[in-house]
Amino acid sequence: MRNVHKGSPAGASTATTLDRLRRGQIATVTAVDIHGPQRRRLMDLGVLPGSRIHIDRVSPLGDPTAYLVRGSVIALRREQARGIHITVEQE
Amino acid sequence: MAADLPTPNANASPPPAASAACGTCVFNHAAQLRALGVDVSGHDHVVALAGNPNTGKSTVFNALTGLRQHVGNWPGKTVTGAEGGFGYRRRRYKLVDLPGTYSLLSDSQDEDVARDFLLFGQPDVTVVVVDATRLQRNLNLVLQILQITGRVVVALNLIDEAHRHGLSLDQRHLARELGVPVVPMAARSRRGLDALLEAIEQVALGTVATRARRVHHGDARTERAVRELAAQLLREYPGLANTRWIALRLLEGDPGIERAVTDGTLDRLSSPTPHAVSSETPGT
Ligand SMILES: Nc1nc2c(ncn2[C@@H]2O[C@H](COP(=O)(O)OP(=O)(O)O)[C@@H](O)[C@H]2O)c(=O)[nH]1
Ligand SMILES: [Mg+2]
After folding, report:
1. Which residues in chain A are closer than 8 Å to B133, comparing Cβ atoms?
2. What is the 8-class DSSP label of residue B208?
3. C-alpha torsion sign, points B145, B147, B149, B153
4. So where does this one cross the membrane (chain A) (predicted)?
5. What is the whole-number distance in angstroms between the Cα of residue A33 and the centre of ligand 1?
6. In a domain, B279, yes or no
7. pLDDT on residue B15
8. Total Cβ atoms within 10 A of residue B136
9. Domains held by chain B: number
10. Which domain holds residue A39?
């Protein structure tokens, strides 16, 4: 993606990856560092820079996790979530 | 644009009456609709039903044709589109229920079926059935389809669910933004069917002018490459529709479209057919 934000703007939020998001936190996607058809798929489901995202529920084994993004729920495996860069809003 | 549209959490005000179209006049045109079942003989127009999975496409299909396509969530769903017929006023329509898809750009089998039909089957009208409670996700496909054809009606389905969630939808604004008719409906209770039929007829006959919203990429080098490739395609395949869209896919390395070039599909399509009339905004 063109705009990969790595730093945290003015310390108001923390840059990390989606797999490290905790329940109750809200984040904004900053970049999708996944390539090929999976990238297309994620973007078609609404995971793209600027999308707000939070955890909807976690499966019994802890993987995959269901996220709510753009009004819909999607399930992502941990390794997929690791490729999605986010900034976490302050709680 | 999508950010301005309501999402299930964004708007808690109580809904207004659904629309003039599906208030008191539910069955006004019922006498004009003739469900023709599997009989698609002698049809005047081809109508495709597209949309994300589970938005009510088959419910609409059944309501119009009188057939019983499987309704609900199931694995191994329809891979090729089911066909049925209906008559409205003085014309006969062939209706094709396409597999549910989130995108026309991924290389999956369902999506290829839907995409190939929209791109190469060139229906006269494409009804995109969207879930009014998940508008943002659904609009992705709507916008993708609008890049291929302007002959579109958006069926804003599950409006009853949306109202239950306290969502109100400004379908006029949406229609203006998209450049095509938007019909709010609740297909399961046959609400809005009359307005849908009316919109289908208008788009089929060209009595309503659509101006499909086109996406521009804002990058001069990309735009130049697309233009050059599109021009080349047109030289190679005179009469081919959607050369800009096809050029974009080729630049992306889309395997399905590369196949269409190498296996002669594009060649076959370049001779204009009676159904190839296009109402796209020119010059985009
Ligand atoms: N509440 C409500 N449910 C609907 C409506 N239209 C369809 N459904 C239900 O939505 C589910 C999916 O419908 P279906 O026609 O199979 O969707 P498809 O996957 O797009 O073909 C079914 O359970 C339908 O009964 C509607 O207008 N309102
Ligand atoms: Mg179906």
Report:
1. 71
2. S
3. positive
4. none
5. 35
6. no
7. 38
8. 19
9. 2
10. 15-89
